[in-house]
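Annex B. Sample input.
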Amino acid sequence: MAYIRITKEFRFEMAHALMGYDGPCRNVHGHSYELRVTVIGRPITDATDVKLGMVMDFGDLKRIVRQHIVDIFDHSLVLNKDMPADVIERLQKTFEKVIILDYQPTSEMMVIDFVQRIQALLPAHIKLYSVLLRETATSFAEWVTTDQE
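Annex B, continued. Sample output.
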């Protein structure tokens, strides 16, 4: 049986600031992010399996991504842990959902983080194929596997 890719799309709102950046994105600003997660596998052929004909239940993929990415990052302010401590402390006192990351919160670095989170939770017979994070209508970062089946 052929390998088939399936994709689930998500949307979330998030603010961030890029520490030390030399452009306007050094200021706190937000985006309406679009996230596309594609997995690859073979459709289930066991006639006794309730998931017969599916590579993976879209609902299962949705649950993984929502719980471990969307619900965490949606309507949050995301900052690099190397921001000045007094700035982080003030923002955490002011806003409810401030996430401090070990990396610069660019689309590229967030995609790497999201890939690691998702890969750790997929069933053994399913492989992550690609993750695309759209930051604006014309800008996105994408990770694509280099594994060949």
